[in-house]
Design a protein that fits this description.
38% strand; 109 residues; two-stranded antiparallel ribbon; 4-stranded antiparallel beta sheet; 28% helix; alpha+beta
């Protein structure tokens, strides 16, 4: 069981926002990215920038910053199951938030 406990909208390119997820164990994981493009959605796991020997952010051949994932998965199947649960949790959180906003509008708050 997993639930989304916070979502920060941030639209830039395919990026829609950042999610904080709480696992059944009580572990809280922050900064999952939520993306949408062409009718597809996906979740990106938290990462941190790769630093070069001088302590600067390493860049790809195209000049984009390089990142390494902060968490890993034992198998692709475990990763896919986790990310599927994360997507469901984010959808549930956003649906509940929309419902709350609609109720507040109807009540004139």
């Amino acid at each position: 069981m997993m639930r989304c406990v916070d979502y920060r909208p941030y639209q830039k390119g395919f990026l829609m926002g950042f999610a904080t997820l709480e696992l059944a164990s009580g572990l809280i994981l922050t900064d999952f990215t939520h993306h949408q493009s062409g009718g597809r959605e996906w979740i990106g796991v938290p990462g941190r920038p790769v630093l070069d020997n001088a302590g600067n952010v390493a860049r790809t051949d195209r000049g984009k910053p390089q990142y390494v994932q902060s968490i890993g998965f034992t198998t692709p199947a475990v990763r896919d199951a986790f990310l599927s649960q994360a997507m469901r949790a984010i959808h549930e959180f956003l649906a509940q938030k929309a419902k709350t906003l609609q109720t507040e509008r109807e009540e004139g708050r």
